[in-house]
Amino acid sequence: MTGRICDAGWLSYGCVVADNGPVLEMTREEFEELVAEALDRIPPELTRLMDNVAVFVEDDPPSDDPELLGLYEGTPLTDRGEWYAGVLPDRITIYRNPTLRMCESREDVVAETEITVVHEIAHHFGIDDARLHALGYG
């Protein structure tokens, strides 16, 4: 699955972001490509099950929670019923600047971006934070 990266602004779950000194430099385009690559690594058998969801990249999360890395907003697949029709797509937003602040190298950014993308897609499948933490994605 190739992700389409767009602009949006939304709220998210909380994450603790370490202060590693100077922020790692990476352009918006480079970061968007990392998100697209992380989406491409999702197994096809899972991407075929994803329904009515769009992925976005934003530079910064809301000012009241500046350390957020990602967000899922929508109705998880496990909660959808017959009533679910004609609704706007679920939204996954990945935040660039907090990710760059917490990482020390490009390799760290690649790894953290993949973890964040998987974390948010898991929410689309109805997997909660407690289960994600147990699986090592918390």
**Poorly predicted ranges:** 1-20
Estimated share of beta-strand residues? 5-15%
**Topology as a string of helices (H) and strands (E):** HHEEEHHH
**How many helices in DSSP terms?**
5
Give the radius of gyration. 15 Å
CATH class of the domain at 28-74 and 88-134: Alpha Beta
Q: Count all strands and give the number.
A: 3
What does the main sheet amount to?
3 strands, mixed
Strand order of the largest sheet: 1-3-2
The overall pLDDT average reads 85
**Helix-strand makeup class:** alpha+beta
Based on the coordinates given, report the CATH architecture of the domain at 28-74 and 88-134.
2-Layer Sandwich
Helix content: 25-40%
Globally, the shape reads: globular
